[in-house]
Amino acid sequence: NTNSFANSSERRKYVDVVLKEELGPMYVGLCNFYETFLGGVADLETAFNAVFKKCREGRNLLYRKG
């Protein structure tokens, strides 16, 4: 519980910065995001899988599990 810690405005601004860094952007209420924004992209899943596979290959991995 950070409620009492964040009561002063000076401390609050630091808590806000840390939370934004740790949690990143948060979006609420984006119902059906995939279908709305990406649903019309032909073969998106196939393209994604091909790109993701490439990111896991080679010496300089762009993605590694864990």
Keyword list:
66 residues, mainly alpha, 2 domains, 3 helices
Structure description:
The protein is built from three helices and no strands. The longest helix has 15 residues, at 9-23. The mean pLDDT is 80. It has helices at 9-23, 33-38, 44-55. The protein starts with 8 loop residues before the first helix and ends in an 11-residue tail after the last helix. It has 66 residues and is mostly helical. Helix content is 50%, strand content 0%. It has two domains: 1-30, no CATH class; 41-66, no CATH class.
Kindly state the mean pLDDT as a whole number? Answer: 80
Low-confidence segments, given as residue ranges, are: none
- Counted beta strands: 0
Count of the domains: 2
Distance between the termini: 29 Å
β-strand percent reads under 5%
The amount of helix comes to 40-55%
Count helical runs.
3
Shape: flat
Biggest sheet overview: none
Structural class: mainly alpha
Q: Please state the CA-atom Rg, rounded to the nearest Å.
A: 20 Å
Order of helices and strands: HHH
Task: Report a brief summary of the structure.
With 66 residues, this protein is mainly α.
Layout of helices and strands:
Layout: H1 9-23, H2 33-38, H3 44-55
